[in-house]
Anti-sigma-W factor RsiW
Amino acid sequence: MKCNVAVVYMHDHLDGDLAREEMKQLQQHLSECPSCYTRYESLERTDALVRALPIEKAPDDLSARIMKSLPSRRRPAAWTSWVRRHPAVSAAAIFMVVMLSSFVSMWNQSQEFSVSGPDLEHVIIEGKNVIVPEGQKVSGNLTVVNGDVQVLGDLDGNLTVIDGHLTPLASTAHIAGEIKTIDRAVDWFWYKVSSFFGTLAYGS
């Protein structure tokens, strides 16, 4: 038997886990190896000393003191409990907040002047002034962003003015569709939502 195996057997023997056959092998090795024998005697004395020490009984209130010293469990906030109880409403609310934030950001960042529509051939653009001339007919919807609009002729569609100004219609003016003036982020949001769902309805 090698010495390293003998050391393992020594500890197993002191713990009471060594089989009878292995005990015979250990005794044979100890009788032939003075170094392992000395080590075994040292381990045996240490084990005996530990076993002879008095066992101290823990105080009766030790468990209570330990539990008291632990950090208290934080109670979940009321809103988190509400979110868990109403997942569908919470998801819809989060969607609306994200959507509103996105559109407000877009509205704040969209400060450039622009004119859009299917028929701009007869529309006069002077700086940030958009004019539908008298005696001219513009077909389709007309959208003006960050500009002033003056209608003197005919507009066969809707007129939408975003963050701009619409001059009162002249007596010669005629607009076949709706007139929308959008000056605030909330209005911009609802305009985008209605346009989005209107597109879906039109596409279906």
Remarks:
- The chain has a mean pLDDT of 79.
- The chain is about 50% helix and 20% strand.
